[in-house]
Amino acid sequence: MIALSVLLIGHSADVGWLFGDRDGKIRSRAIGVFVVGFWLLDVGNNATQSPCRALLADLTGKDHRRTRVANAYFSLFMALGNVLGYASGSYSGWFTLLPFTVTKACSVNCANLKSVFLIDIVLLAITTYISVSSAKEVPLTSDSGVAHSAEGPEQEPFLWELFGAVRYLPWPIWTILIVVALTWVGWFPFIQFDTDWMGREIYRGDPNNGQNYHSGVRMGAFGLMLNSIILGVTSVSMEKLCRKWGSGLVWGVSSLIMTFCFIGMLIIAFIASNIEYSSKGLPPNGIIIASLVVFAVLGAPLSVTYSLPYAMISSKIEPLGLGQGLAMGIMNLAIVIPQMLVSLGSGPIDQLFGGGNSPAFAVAAIASFLSGLVAIIGLPRPSTTRTRERTRDRR
């Protein structure tokens, strides 16, 4: 599904041209193909990550420390993939390797994207084969102590099981899900508009006119590569941070870092809109460096987002006996529902305030601040801290 989706996204302009997109700036058929491809990509990514998370939790058993370490390494390898992906996005010469990607409907910038996606499909096929052939799963049988009936799955579909399990969740799990939802309300505006913000508000580019916008997008991709490097470095140290400060405090502090970074983006955009640019229309180096620093720093809280919530929900759900697959499904609801709200609301809000990305980042700053507040206050502190406090009280 991921391979199909990137094919549709990369070739959306060509498919739109084939079905009649000729005149006008708005290529409605290409947009339709792109939307379908993007939707399939989102479904494919969710369908891939949730079983991976559940498998990690199953393999680490009831050892919460190993669960945290496993999810930290999951975050590390996501960072490695992101570094390669964003590095490829910051390079503008991919079309020279596959010159046939340049067509009447697809310019050089479009051909670069298409070429990267074609290379990605080859890498995806190789890595998927390695993963599937290496993972040795033990299927559930009567020996595992779980009773199965032939009519069980038909009587209780997983979707209804997912929603039905929600009413059995204790308050600590609800707290984690609330923090997850608020955290992702903070992340989605950045994920949607990061490179667009760089191209539109920092480089003052027009997506349909000139090269400034595309130069900004490539610089944004370079910033996201730096972001992924910091993400990977933070992932390696995640277990030590959690043992020292506690998962809740680490998560809360990371959300507050997000808040300061989003506020920083608002300040940088405001300064950029009120200063003189060079004769070529390019922003001063100080503005570019400040933007890249914000992109890079956001890698640290992103590492927390990719690892800690999954480890915490796994450890909390295990005593309830609901299963790790179901736990990841519930977690996914806390991510997907905010994603839908942000996706539907960010465009109209931005247009209401003049078409810039600043309103969405303001919402992101507020949501991440609330998530940090709830995490620090609502999530339990580590047992080691409680033990030390009891020892002091006895003394």
Automatic annotation (TrEMBL):
An annotated GO BP: sucrose metabolic process
Highest taxon, organism lineage: Eukaryota
Pathway: Glycan biosynthesis; sucrose metabolism
GO cellular component, one term: plasma membrane
Swiss-Prot/TrEMBL keywords: Membrane, Sugar transport, Symport, Transmembrane, Transmembrane helix, Transport
UniProt cross-references to SUPFAM superfamilies, sorted A to Z: MFS general substrate transporter
GO molecular function, one term: sucrose:proton symporter activity
Positions of transmembrane segments: 69-91, 111-132, 168-190, 217-237, 249-275, 287-308, 320-341, 361-380
Subcellular location: Membrane
Membrane topology (UniProt): Multi-pass membrane protein
Family of this protein: Belongs to the glycoside-pentoside-hexuronide (GPH) cation symporter transporter (TC 2.A.2.4) family.
Protein name per Swiss-Prot or TrEMBL: Major facilitator superfamily (MFS) profile domain-containing protein
Organism: Asparagus officinalis (Garden asparagus)
Organism placement in taxonomy: Eukaryota, Viridiplantae, Streptophyta, Embryophyta, Tracheophyta
